[in-house]
């Protein structure tokens, strides 16, 4: 990423934040609904970066993460000062890891690594294709002369945890030298990080919880689609089949209740780099797409939902 471009963007974000604070607002960094690892990590990173640049900010989320994510971020010990209890009237939101907000609070900007529609219309936006949002924020910090072990460690962790340990199609191969150097220099246990990056789910967990993993909502021209995603252990694939059938039945009920016309239920198998996508309609019809690679929601899910016709 162009260092001067990021330096200018970072300066403009700081200026905007200070203006909002002067007008009585409070700066809040937040991720998407049911935040994943990258959403939480990048929110913490941006709070830290803003703090070092003279802007007081807090990290809040409107919903809680799923169990796998909560286990991971707890292990990373980054939840100090992070709230999952929603927002206050004076909060001025900066979105990370997404750029389409369903909350009523005023959104002043976004930092994201998803280049998919819709286009943002905030006072500040920075959307750069990258392995993770944490990677973008680390590069922002470097562009203004802030480069330390804490932010770099979080950046490395965000990439592994958002790309199924560098196996996802969205992983940028150009990040490999930076990751290798950081892991070696910072003494990161890569084997442990790889295992965390797989984010494997437990088939014995409650169906309602499994069905909501990685929940994301997409709105296109008044129609609403959704996706969820689980990671399964291929050694337990037979055990998962009955569970997946039950999850699909549950999702059909949720679609009718929430007026969602198409739901993509993604089943990733990170150890063998394969994915199955179940495209579900409210009439219980299911189209199964099998991929010989790991699915990318920006590549394999969002375009399908955007182009599909609503169920009538």
Task: Report what the structure shows.
- The protein is globular.
- It has helices at residues 3-22, 37-52, 67-76, 133-143, 149-162, 176-186, 190-198, 207-212, 237-258, 297-307; strands at 26-30, 57-60, 82-83, 91-96, 106-112, 124-127, 216-220, 223-231, 262-269, 274-280, 286-291.
- The strands form two sheets. A six-stranded parallel sheet has the order 3-2-1-4-5-6. Strands 7-8-9-10-11 form a five-stranded mixed sheet.
- The longest helix is centred in the C-terminal third of the chain and has 22 residues, at 237-258.
- It has ten helices and eleven strands.
- It is of the alpha/beta class.
Give a short synopsis of this structure:
The N and C termini lie far apart (44 Å). Helices cover 42% and strands 20% of the residues.
Question: Any key phrases for this structure?
Answer:
10 helices, 312 residues, globular
């Amino acid at each position: 990423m162009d260092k001067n471009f990021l330096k200018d963007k970072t300066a403009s974000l700081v200026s905007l934040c200070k203006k909002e604070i002067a007008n009585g607002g409070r700066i809040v960094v937040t991720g998407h609904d049911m935040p994943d690892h990258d959403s939480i990590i990048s929110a913490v990173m941006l709070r830290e970066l803003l703090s070092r640049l003279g802007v007081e900010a807090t990290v809040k989320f409107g919903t809680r993460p799923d169990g796998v994510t909560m286990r991971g971020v707890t292990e990373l010990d980054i939840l100090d000062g992070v709230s999952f209890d929603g927002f206050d009237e004076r909060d001025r939101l900066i979105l990370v890891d997404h750029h389409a907000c369903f909350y009523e609070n005023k959104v002043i900007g976004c930092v994201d690594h998803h280049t998919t529609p819709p286009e943002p219309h905030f006072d500040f936006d920075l959307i750069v294709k990258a392995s993770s949002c944490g990677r973008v924020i680390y590069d922002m910090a470097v562009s203004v002369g802030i480069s330390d072990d804490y932010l770099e460690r979080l950046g490395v962790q965000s990439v592994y945890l958002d790309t199924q340990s560098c196996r996802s199609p969205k992983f940028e191969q150009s990040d490999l030298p930076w990751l290798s150097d950081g892991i070696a220099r910072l003494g990161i246990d890569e084997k442990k990080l790889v295992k965390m990056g797989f984010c494997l789910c437990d088939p014995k967990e409650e169906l309602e919880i499994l069905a909501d993993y990685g929940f994301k909502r997409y709105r296109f021209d008044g129609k609403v689609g959704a996706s969820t995603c689980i990671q399964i252990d291929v050694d337990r694939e037979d055990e998962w089949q009955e569970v997946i059938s039950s999850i699909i039945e549950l999702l059909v009920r949720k679609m009718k209740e929430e007026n969602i016309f198409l739901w993509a239920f993604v089943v990733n198998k990170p150890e063998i780099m394969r994915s199955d996508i179940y495209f579900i309609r409210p009439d219980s019809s299911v189209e199964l797409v099998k991929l010989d690679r790991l699915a990318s929601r920006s590549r394999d899910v969002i375009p399908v939902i955007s182009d599909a016709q609503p169920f009538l």
